[in-house]
Write a structure and sequence with these properties.
By secondary structure, the protein is mainly α. It starts with a helix and ends in an 11-residue tail after the last helix. 80% of the residues lie in helices and 0% in strands. It has a single domain, classed as nmb1532 protein domain like (Four Helix Bundle (Hemerythrin (Met), subunit A)), CATH 1.20.120. The chain is elongated and about 55 Å long. Bound molecules: fe (ii) ion (2 copies). One fe (ii) ion binds next to α1, α2 and α4.
Length: 164
């Protein structure tokens, strides 16, 4: 059976692809290129709809809920820190949107880099710590129920081709 955390890890790969593209654009900005506003607008749209609304919703509404329910099997409770980092990410995205409206190059670069670095670190922690804890703590019937709930959330289409 495919585990819920395997789905989440494969979604991380899509998010990291966009983050890499964002960092490359930041490098171009730093070396004096014109601001590619269309790119950043598209990246913000991806982050809000896919990374936040789609992926983080699965974590916050389904995974963290089940991890809390299995709290007695956890040696630590990393969910609050993960939630805090999701919130920090939302702040960078909000500031990035404001910077795009103002066409403020410095703020665009700063907030895009801030988001990218935060999420790279966040994803590393989830893939290598949080999800391993979840795999061990969550019973098989709970994981099967989670897979059904994930499937219900999957009406949103993500086109990987857009980011190759
Ligand atoms: Fe997360
Ligand atoms: Fe995640």
């Amino acid at each position: 059976m495919q585990k819920p955390t395997e789905i989440l890890t494969s979604e991380h790969k899509n998010i990291l692809k966009v983050i890499d593209a964002m960092l490359a654009k930041c490098g171009e900005l730093e070396s004096g290129a014109e601001t590619d506003k269309d790119f950043f607008v598209k990246a913000v749209d991806f982050i809000k709809n896919y990374a936040d609304r789609f992926h983080h919703a699965k974590e916050e509404d389904i995974l963290f809920r089940e991890m809390r329910a299995a709290q007695d099997k956890l040696h630590c409770s990393p969910m609050d820190q993960m939630l805090f980092e999701h919130e920090e990410g939302r702040k960078f995205v909000k500031n990035l949107e404001d910077a795009l409206v103002k066409e403020d190059r410095k703020d665009i670069e700063e907030n895009a880099r801030g988001y990218a670095n935060l999420l790279q670190d966040h994803i590393y922690k989830e893939d290598n710590i949080l999800y391993l804890i979840a795999d061990e703590a969550l019973k098989e019937d709970v994981q099967i129920k989670m897979m059904e709930e994930f499937a219900q959330m999957e009406e949103l289409e993500f086109n990987e081709k857009d980011w190759e």
